Records
---
Amino acid sequence: MSFLFTVSPDFTPDHLSGWYIFNTWLQKQTGVAIHLEMYNGFNAQREAISQDKVNLIYANPYDAAMLVREKGFLPLAKPVGESDEAIIAVSASNPVSDAAELTPGIRLAFTDDPDVKMMGMIMLEPGDLDVGNMQSMPCDAYVQVAKHLLRGEADVGIFLAEAYDGLSEMIKKQLKILVRSQISVIHHSLMIGPGLLDKREQFQQCLLGMTGDEKGRGVLESLGFRAWEKVDDEEMEFMIDLMDTLTL
Amino acid sequence: MINDMNPRDIVGEFRETVLNLYGGMQRKVFYTGIETPYPDGKLIVSTTDPTGIITHVNQAFIDMSGYTEAELIGAPHSILRHPDMPSAAFKDLWDTVERGEKWQGFVKNLRKDGGYYWVKATVVPNIRKGVVVGYTSVRRKPSRTKVEECIALYPTLF
Ligand SMILES: Cc1cc2nc3c(=O)[nH]c(=O)nc-3n(C[C@H](O)[C@H](O)[C@H](O)COP(=O)(O)O)c2cc1C
């Protein structure tokens, strides 16, 4: 029998092959047969989780709460130095310079990345903006959010900070950042769940040891990570409580 | 325990008053009319034990309150209590979280230097293995409209 591993659909597409390389490495190290399944979007992935098909997941902070509290998952590790931050941007030609100056009725472009959208909405609150008084423009990818802003089809865009920073210089020159979040404690985590929990320590040791050998370092590089760092139960609980204060 | 504020820490012209805090504690506070704007993009985070004693603060908390981490850890959370805040707001906070629910409200906090800052605060109970081990509060930047509403409303609640 093989276990099922999946990755939150908000990962950067450049690292798709990295996750397959990682999965191969993990199977070799642990001797456990693991199948990597990439779902087409959040809904398909949530459906698989609700049917208890998933055993291992690189989860976004939003899903982490549900995975721990409802599905009995526990944290393994997080990538060192990576935290989830959001950016509110407008077109460079927009006279607005503070999110609080934005007015109801504006057209908002965003992706279905749940924690990024949540952080973005929090940064729009100071201008009394909420889902009820903005026009939503859902997008499949952050590049699309940028394009809507450049074409003047959207007034404001919410970006994952990492995705914004990765846009081409030509695009970034035509955009303007109003707010960049500096939260630093919200992060994706690799989590282990039903069926595999007895292997938690073994997995954790493999992950933490990756920087110690050359192959492991190469695998990390293909994921765009420096190293994995252990996440203990209380750190995860703290992040879940924090997320809970933000989802209202 | 909580000490009186020290006039030497205060920046600018100030007024003084004595706050009656929970458990019969009294504190002399000095307060000015100087507002520190909420920092864009940041969250102010603290955690308390079940009685409201601070057990954790983040850097944004330290920066905005003006106290050092050492002064904050172990102090009651009322170290930030501003005389313009009606007690009813905090009674509602405690009643709500003690029922195991999430509380949200707008709070004017007192800084060590006598100034103040407005926040939109959310408090949740930290439940571990079914037991409340403490509370976490996360503050974000409030909308000016909501703050103006509170400035008009709070004096009527005394
Ligand atoms: C997690 C948590 C965070 C709190 N944050 C604040 C705060 O920022 N400012 C404040 O005046 N009171 C805060 N309180 C409420 C105080 O504990 C206290 O009730 C309040 O300052 C009024 O003082 P009193 O209860 O001694 O009358 C917080 C309470 C909890 C549980």
---
Amino acid sequence: MKKTAIIFLLLTFMTVGLWASGDQEAKSEKKGNTIFIITPSHDNPFFKTEAVAADDEATKMGYATTVLSHDDDANLQDQQFDTAIAAGALAIIVDNAGADATIGPVRRAKEAGIPSFLIDREINETGLAVSQIVSNNYQGAVIGAEKFVELMGEKGKFVELVGKESDTNAGIRSKGYHEILDQYPALEMVARQSANWSQTEAYEKMESILQANPDIKGVICGNDTMAMGAMAALKAAGMGDVIVVGFDGSNDVRDSILAGDIKATVLQTCAYNARLAVQQADKYIKTGSTGAPEKQLTDCVLIDSSNAEKLDNFVLEQ
Amino acid sequence: MMIRDSAPPVFGLMLVVFLTFGSGCTIVRHDDEQENEDGGISIYFDTGEFDAAVYVDSMWNERVLPRIREKAVEADTLFGMLKEKPDTAIEKYGYRIEITAPFNFMVSGAAKVVSVNTESAASTISLDLTGPDGKPVEIQIGPVIKGTAVRDSMDFINFDDFTNQLEFANVSRELNNKIKAVVLNDLDREALQGKVVAFLGAFQWVEGKSILITPVELKPEE
């Protein structure tokens, strides 16, 4: 009897509590003028560019912004979505921390009436985010691999350095590379290792791969920082003429291409995509529709000695 | 507890086995296995739920070929217009899947083969036909087929309809595989030199760059 009473009381409190918090959320939703911008770590210039471009575009349009980094930690991203929901954000612009892990928070935001606009990486679910402006990493990997094949003369031993295995783009890029590379029987992959997007790790991995394979002709990398690491290791081993191809279009690799070291990379138009997401968020806030399909692909551009000069901070001058 | 934990995967495996062998068609999941053989690196993201080969098979004859036959523009007309009035050509005949991508065109014609270029695995034939850039127009004859021109010319194949970009990419791969199987496999490459070929296909257009057609039909005239 006593127990039942306590449970009843608890249930009553909980219901009232839920009621109250729901009411509060509804009120704060109306109050906010803030767009949340959530990306991976700004230590990587790519994500910094993305965040700065989105911030700049939103500020220009008169919105307040909150810029956060989830550091590729899905739990941290969860908390940041909750913060945005509690603050009654007008919209969330996000380069997400995982194709599956992000489905939950985007759904929660939607249920709270807050639209999400995804940039760079997509999630494995449609109908939750308003826009998914996806960098066509696959197409980018294909054009990078086609250039690599051409530089290799369609034959010879090569190494692949893969990004962080849990990262969507690591998988997509590797698949795109192999889509092309595997069609050339005279190209022989002697090693394929993950260097977790890291320059130091790429240097170390490359050093040990070279001991077993001193006769390699090329290295294809899932991003530019790994390409920089691989190039440094090759140069240290007196093998600076090995063909290295990266992905991202960073200024470091641009300079390396201009110096004749790394041969090519692939640029994702991250600044453009970030601005486009904010423009669509603005339109959605004002009219209830973006006028665009949810999933939108943006193409990547090959960067080599012919156009590297025109590249600066992930923007290619026309 | 142990049994309950392992039960779902076993059931799932049985289901896969049933679906694979019980349905009468072979579902080849070579991607995952291949990745795992490569130094044990497992690739995240591919759900494996979508079979692009089946999808392409189901619409090659019913939708892809009819659409290209219906929409293809005669080569001389199209290349002339792309040279003189590219904006008009784009407006009338061009199609692109997104605003940062180049436009794609569908084209038909007949022309003499002036050279067969097989030193690269991505082999081509050069035609006695001048593109908007003033250079000979080329047709891909494989075995490696570059680009996504056929997929990207189809206004009924939209990225928005697929779970992720891998699925979308697989559609293009399977379209290219289909082309290899039905258009290029039986082609007598050595006999093409000097012959007139009738072609139907698609290409992606970038101003100033040469035209490279991906054929969906390619027949030497008798």
---
Amino acid sequence: MSAERRLKAERIRHLLETERDAIRENTTHMNRQRYDAIERFERYEASREAARAIKEDAIERLPELIDRVRESVEANGGTVYVAEDAADANRYITEVTAEKGAETLVKSKSMTSEELEVNEALETAGVDVYETDLGEFVIQVAGEAPSHLVGPSLHKSTAAIAELFNAHFEPDEPLETAEELTNFARDYLLEYIVEADVGMTGANFVLADSGTVVLVTNEGNARKSAVTPDTHVAVAGVEKILPSIDDLAPFTELIGRAATGQEFPQYLTMLSPPVDSPPLDFESDVPLSEAEGDRDFHLVLVDNGRMEMREDPQLRETLYCIRCGACANTCANFQHVGGHAFGGETYTGGIATGWEAGVHGLDSAAEFNDLCTGCSRCVNACPVKIDIPWINTVVRDRINRGEDAELDWLVEGLTPDAEPGGMDLGKRFFGNFGTVARLGSATAPLSNWVANAGPARALAERVLGIDRRRDLPRFERQTLRAWFDARGGAAVPAGDADREAVLYADPYTDHVQVDRGKAAVRVLEALGVHVRIPEVPESGRAPLSQGMVATAGERASEVYRSLVEHVDAGRDVVVIEPSDLAMFRQEYEKFLPEASFERLGEASYEVMEYVYGLLGEGADAGELADGRGEAVAYHSHCQQRTLGLDAYTEAVLDDLGFDVVTSSVECCGMAGSFGYKSEYYELSMDVGGDLQSEFAAHPDREIVASGTSCIEQLDALFDDGTRHPVELLDPGR
Amino acid sequence: MTAQPRTEFEASLQRQGSSWTRTTTEGFADAVADAVVEPAVATDLSEWGLDFGDAPVTVDPTPAELLEATTGVAGVTTGIASYGTLAIPSDAKGTEPVSLYPERHVAVVRESDVVADVQAGLDRVAEEFDAEPGSVVFATGASSTGDMGALVSGVHGPKQVHVVVVEDR
Ligand code: SF4
């Protein structure tokens, strides 16, 4: 293993040991709440659409809205400063505190202020800063960085916080429970809040027409920080601006649900400062209504790369993010390592790649970008419908292009791609899996022996980063297409068929998991379908997952060219591998002209979805194998679930008399090539452990799975081989 | 709290763990006396024609009295039925701090100010903002945090919320 890979592996191992349990428990809890809250929220999709449209419009009109905010805030009696970058913002803020002669500043949670590292700037200027959000407070006391957008101390258990507080504050009675810790922190912070000279908050939204800062909180600390001292500084990225209060409603109903599963935030604070509320001078004996004192308000709008992100068609979407953290919670890798691995200088979770690339640069994004496996489970979780995996892919592509060329010649022959020299060789290898598979089958079984032999494994690990502990795919000598030709092609002639289908022989089905391909052919034929298996290139999924966007785009065009005549002839395209179907139905939108994308997407089906449709149209289920109550445990594939296709498999198996239980974990942990990579092997197995414990509870059930990588992972986790569900239906089984 | 919710607003209050009493202008002082835990402070509500009478509350407290209080009684300008949300204005008489600092918040709402949903609540604020942008907190239930590893109520804001619904206002 290379030194870099080893370091990464060690770091991940360390986090698995120290932070995983707390993160897993917290994210699992938040996910459960979120799923419930969203299920009960009928307007979820409509609200997402509305929120998305509002953000698109606001970012489009951003320069004009910034001017409008300035006018409104100034009309209210406040000041607006647009800061070019972090240094500029910090300079302005420290000037304000100096002018006030401020000694202490109380702060409510703000990720943008973390991005600025304003605390350090203030401390240097001689101002004591107190974080009043309890999660931030814990982090401040511990001297750590936030591990989550919403729950900065998510990686710490109650016991760990108690240990920290007891050591740091030495209370008379040691603190133990969450309630004791909360009360202690509240009382401790209250003293600083009542004395503070300046209150600093972030802003979840800024309303341009009225100059209103909107804050979403649960603890009440933002309210206290904003209205207790007479000076309020709010810090917000420019992207937080919405045109007016009329645009706010969908966000108020989405943000709490997406973040923590709350139907509505505890406190939705809308301040058009300076506020009328009396400043609180706890030494004065004048009643509140007669309190004197002028309030002062400064809104610091931070650019720090955002206006450039706005000009960048790929990163622009990042600016729609409302930082709810749902993309982190829903991510299997995040659930196991948390934001201290899955995050950059400031931001954490799936969307952090976009934020880090935009505000801190590619190097920060490169630190963790590979932890996104493109499983797409976050796509439906995002309240503003950001295509988070796509942003991760694009940034990966840019990172690839930034690396130095060196051992290129080693994979050159295997990599007929459109990528630059110098990108990570392992990535290039996995990105060209179609070619690898073709060579593998052509030289099987020799290729299998060689590939699994010690020296070759060592070389593969060193050069390509393929972990030695993984079994490699075993290439079959006879490919699916060769078998099909050898048996004389289609068994159901076109003339006798109700439908004609093209079975898409992806490289895995064609070269490795040939049995599932054979089963699919027999099942379709049993239902009266005329089947063809033309030669069609790899879908582009493999290169895309390595961030090889140009290569994926080329594949998309090639695939379209080879399938379009079949689509024109009225043939259906049947796909076994869910990640390839997801390409056809989702990612190809980025690569093909709209009409082509729609044409192919509409003609394509996942194999079990197709069987479900055939049975629904009256095909005779009696021609398929009867389940006879056979007990199976089914794990569907991440992308299949994002597309809502898992239900078809369950329904078909159920109809045919199988007794099915399904897994509930987000991901098997393998995620294409991810689990092969030596730096991620342990994480991949750790994530797989969740699926393992779910299915270990059903030792008598045969395990079936739809995705290639899920099958490989399950094969590593359980002794008995894992099959594709279509194999259960095979009349020839 | 044993009362059965009679309206959607009350059902929402019950769901979030808040309590409530219904009263009239006439019964207001007694309802407040029943609802507070002393020491209690309040903001003046005479503009709504509500008089604290003999209720044990310090109306228009000093900041020090506010800090000592266990209960803060203050009027909210809107109630939102769907979530049991209360609109706390940030006004010169101190409705915001009186609702925020004490452990128990007794919120007074005129029943005619209860609207159906968030959109209706925001529309009301929007109308005010058209005249002059102001400040308001939509508060839903007690303050809470999960940051110490388990959900705890009562952080920087109140631990308990009790709503006094004035039927004839
Ligand atoms: S990308 Fe979407 S899901 Fe992720 S934090 Fe932003 S708004 Fe939430």
---
Amino acid sequence: MSSREQILGRVRRALADVPRDGAPDGPDGPKKSDGPNRSDGSHGPGQVAGYEEAVAREYLREHGERSAAQTAELLAENLADYRALVHRCTEDELPSLIGRLFADHGTRTVLAPAGLDPAWLSATDVERVEDRAESTAHELDGVDSVVTACAVAIAETGTIVLDGGPDQGRRRITLVPDHHVCVVRVPGQVVSSVPQALERLDPARPLTWISGPSATSDIELDRVEGVHGPRTLEVVLVD
Amino acid sequence: MSGTFVGMPAFPKAAQEAVGNPTLRANLRHATHTIRAKRAAAVAEVSDWAALREAGKQIKDHTLRHLDRYLVQLEESVTAAGGTVHWAADADEANRIVTRLVKETGESEVVKVKSMATQEIGLNEALEAEGIRAYETDLAELIVQLGKDRPSHILVPAIHRNRGEIRDIFAAEMSEWGRPAPEGLTDTPAELAEAARLHLREKFLRARVGVSGANFMVAETGTLVVVESEGNGRMCLTLPETLISVVGIEKIVPTWRDLEVFLQTLPRSSTAERMNPYTSTWTGTTDGDGPRTFHLVLLDNGRTDTLADEVGRQALRCIRCSACLNVCPVYERAGGHAYGSVYPGPIGAILSPQLRGTGSEIDASLPYASSLCGACYEVCPVAIDIPEVLVHLRERVVQGGPVTLEGNRTVLKPAKGHAAERAAMRAARWAFARPGALRAGQRLASRTRRLHPRTLPGPGRAWSGSRDLPPVPAEPFRDWWQRTNGGDAGEGRAK
């Protein structure tokens, strides 16, 4: 017998006390599922029928009522609380702001994903390094800064989420260089809460959720920013 | 579970040693009190905590009650996304699978993200025996590995070490494993973190195989989730060409949407943050981004035995946040090593004896490693009633009863050594019912107090072996009451 069969068999025997008629938990109720109920009582592939009723989701979709402006403000506050450097500007000011951030950081080379809006780098003369599949991690390690867009940002937790889209690039480009500049469009890319963010994201893509720069609390639970990821995270909120 | 902790003394003895170590107690007290206060503040920020906790409990319970269905669904979706799924009934099988997969890549070293499951099965030791070196890359795990030590906390494995000890370990040991610690390293956390960054970066950049666990697996989509802070997780999950994840079968959630519950409760419960710095999710492999090969090893190793226990199975809801450790008065004083398992604290006291059975001395003692104060239940984000399971397991140890071991139903005999306890209780009942005898006994005890041994003789030795005997007072309380003014009011009755 394969280990697969052995484990599944043990699970089934372990659950001898649980009704196996396909009802989720408790008495049969109206069932909604991704597959129709079959006459033999079994269900199509996919989750157990009736899952939507099986869990009481009485928690909130977001915490408190805020205007779009207040949500952006909360995002800025929570990002800053975890030591991200937050900047705000208009679309027109963005290229010069990015240029200034590179100058302040002493950046000479910058990684930019292929789909990045070229205008963002129009006011700087730092050398641009392409995000190529064949470049090695060692090459990336020699790059000063990286600039990307994001997929969504979560105000309540101070989180930006990257989904590997053309303007965000491969996961490693926002990991190996020490300085990450991330541009968030306000209000379009900003949501209040974790539930609202998950709705917008595609699980098939590799996702990276970033809340402040890399940090550790492993030494006497003292928080230290900067271990392995970028030690400086700058988030630009573009109105 | 792993052989790492075999030969550990039972909890009372190990705890007694730990309690006598003032540095350890100070380190633990500082750390647990710090995180306790922070966690309470982080939880107080969300007004719907109780509803999130209830939803988390229900999602996990539902999943466990239909675990076979969700395991099959997960296997299908991971496979469809380009991953390969392996099934491991026990630690040995999991280690054999991982070793074989690493060997097939031709590599002799791997980088590892902190993972309780691989600690549990003793993967590093198994790889070492086959000539494969596993580098732990979480800062705390690095401290433990370099210090040839064992982890003592789920979230902060080096919680028992202070900055001075960490500095000394880095200065002495880093050169053995790769890049040495910088000259003149001081004990500031920032400098220590920088030393770890430099030491590990050379390993990340050359690594071709990464090994991880996962916090969650989504059956519906085949997505795995790793929650971390330092970025070492991102390094291990994305830079190597091959990624091998070893994950307990209980880590499933049915749907993508379910993550909305746990991504709110886990960070606040564990590190007391609104959100941890980094969360990575991946679904199989992605062309041109991250590992080209992904293996998922689904681990049983006692989980199905735990599932068979109707009271104890709730331990499988655990999301390894470690909040219960930080509030536990017993953990705070005894430390994690005393529990003799990779899962210390209250959750360890119920999880380890279920995963491993109660056959060994340490496992039979773990259900007693608690004051049953209930603080662990209060903070648990998935509402595991740890005290209920502790009492249930105590009953199993003392009285025996039906259990499932390695998939087979069997009947456990009562453990030895509880006869003395029953005899002592009978003697106490007799004395308390006879005031004259009690008074005479107390007076005798006081007058002979200088002659008393420091430990109890006979069967009482087990009790006094791990406890300080309270000194007998020079005079029984009732005599003192008579002699002093306090006796006035009750004089008539006392005579």
